[in-house]
Amino acid sequence: MKILAIETSCDETAIAILECKGDKQSAKFKVLGNALISQIEIHKEYGGVFPALAKREHAKNLVPILEAALEEAELLHEDTQVIQEETRAKISEILAREPGLTEMFFEFVSECETPEIDAIAVTAGPGLEPALWVGINFAKALSLIWSKPLVAVNHMEGHILSALAKEVLNDPINTPPISTRLNLVISDVKMPVLALLISGGHTELVLMKEWLQYELIGQTRDDAVGEAFDKVARMLNLPYPGGSHISALAEIARKNADDTQIAAEKIPRDSASVLRSSALRLPRPMIDSGTCDFSFAGLKTAVLYLLKKQDILMNGRPSVDREILNRQIAHEFENAVTDVLWKKTAQALSETGARTLVIGGGVSANTHIRRVFKEKMVSEFPDSSLQIPASNLSTDNAIMIALAGFYRAVQKEFSTDFKANGNLSLAKSA
After folding, report:
1. Domain ranges of the chain
2. Quick one: pLDDT at residue 392?
3. In 10 A of CB 79, how many CB atoms?
4. Which of 104, 171, 240, 410 could form a disulfide with 63 if both were Cys (CB 3.0 to 4.6 A apart)?
5. Would you tell me how many other CB atoms lie within 10 Å of the CB of residue 63?
6. Environment class of 311 (CB within 10 Å of its CB; exposed 0-12, middle 13-18, buried 19+)
7. How far is 199 from 223, CA to CA, in rounded Å?
8. Taking phi first (over 0 means left), then psi (-120 to 50 degrees means alpha), and beta for anything else, what does residue 45 get?
9. Dist CA 29 CA 19 (whole Å)
10. CB-based contacts of 266: which residues, under 8 Å, 6+ apart?
11. Domain 193-383 is of which CATH architecture?
């Protein structure tokens, strides 16, 4: 089965084509084509994703990356197609809100033959609804013109499955470029599976007792962890997206243990106290609440107060001193986040008896979180396995949507009667 997948939930426009074999017990996947355009540079000046801009960029980029993905998969063949007026009218209605996309769509499909794919998968949610709608309507138009069944995919399920997917190494099929001619396998999954989903919009613990059957174990009561990273980054005058920049500062602080001493020697006695571990200690919100829920709004606020204190004490001091202090704050913030994530996850592992832990979502790329979780799993849960997606599969991408689309297609979950849902839930509360 060949799946063409479309992802437009946020600020990545992505299309992938996968060849899929097997069933839910054991499946193999070959990435035939993979195209992605990021909007990060566009949204930087806003300090976050601006929905109207994201929608506009998706509409502009979908046809070009579709062409690129099909060409890479060797499924793009020129041919003149006559589009019946009735079909043209229906598609025009589907794409009515995107006139520019409509024009590009007709121009493209009229000049190429229907590709040899078996189904189309598209993200239905969660995400930014204006962005989701562009991808959904584009998928519905392709489904109509090519007469291919359509599968609605939950974005978070994609993250779980991409974490469960293992790369097949030393496979003769793996020909350059490895990023696209990628071979994956999902098999021998030990149930139950506990998923820690961490991204800009989500922080939740989800249990999969049976295949594709989910139960919500814990969730954030306010800010998602990725959102907290971005907000703290803005406080530190770091570029968007903030997670990688905070992590970079934190790693420098870990490698420069003498930062505190250096700064203390340079700044006034009262200022030096800010650098002491007791003064830099940030709270670990809800870490001992007894639940598996999270909260990061208070941690963000604590950073704000610490920075205000820093500004008072550091008034007029050299910028190098501020840089050292910011590294220390980034270090402590990242440590606090990781401590909370692990404590809640460990509690959920103990309570559920999960045999597999997966971490998915954009924040799963964080080096420190990966390092701590790997160490803790070996020492505290040696009988359970940890699976984290490769860095290129941790952020939003269409490969993960194709994985989820395959499993839903196997279960014949085809439909064109669905809408974008920015708050689409993967699981019900326990």
Report:
1. 2-189+393-429, 193-383
2. 79
3. 9
4. 104
5. 20
6. exposed
7. 10
8. alpha
9. 6
10. 317, 318, 320, 321
11. 2-Layer Sandwich (3.30)
Per-residue pLDDT tens over the stretch 155-189: 999 999 999 999 886 544 444 444 456 899 999 99
Q: Which residues contact 341 (CB under 8 A, 6 or more apart)?
A: 196, 198, 225, 294, 369, 373
| Rounded Cα–Cα distance for residues 66 and 54 (Å) | 17
Q: Which amino acid is it at 138? A: F
Residues 95 and 137: beta-carbon distance below 8 Å: yes
The CATH number of 2-189+393-429 is which of 3.40.640.10, 3.30.420.40, 2.40.50.100, 3.40.50.850?
Answer: 3.30.420.40
Q: Which of 158, 141, 144, 145 is nearest to 112 (CA)?
A: 145
| Low-confidence stretches of the chain (pLDDT beneath 50) | 171-179, 262-272, 274, 277-278, 430
Over residues 62-86, the pLDDT tens digits come to 999 999 999 999 999 998 888 999 9
C-alpha distance from residue 168 to each of 22, 398, 414 (Å)? 15, 19, 29
Give burial (CB, 10 Å; 0-12/13-18/19+) of 388.
buried
SS3 35: strand
Residue 424: its pLDDT value, please? 94
Q: Are 199 and 369 in contact (CB under 8 A)?
A: no
Q: Two tokens at 336?
A: 């606090």
Tell me the CB-side half-sphere exposure of residue 208, using CA atoms within 13 A.
Answer: 21
- The predicted pLDDT at position 316 comes to 54
Residue-level length of the chain = 430
Cβ count near 242 (within 10 Å): 24
Task: Assess contact for 302 and 329: CB atoms under 8 A.
Answer: no
Beta pairing partners, 334 = none
pLDDT at residue number 259: 53
Cα distances (Å, whole numbers) of residue 64 to 67, 109, 226: 5, 12, 30
